[in-house]
Amino acid sequence: MLTTPHLELAIREALAEAPPVLELDLTKVEFCSSSALGALVKAREAAGESTELRVAVGRYLDRTLNLLGLDTVFARYPSAAEALAADRN
Q1: Which Pfam families would you find in this protein's record (predicted)?
Q2: Which ranges constitute the DSSP H helices of the chain?
């Protein structure tokens, strides 16, 4: 919960530049509070159609997103390298 405000600020700052792609490396996340999940959903909404949001997730967060039905909301990748390389394929 202490890191959620930092996550929200970092995402807000990144989206302010209107990038075509925003990649979040969350592969090392071992716990994700409802506040943090809410921040991710808000990020998806804020990105809109102009920014593709790519999320690199580890096993824990991948399973959490699946259980909550959020697996279709995010472009998920098993590693940051794969998220970065996605537009090159």
Answers
A1: STAS_2
A2: 4-16, 34-47, 59-67, 80-85
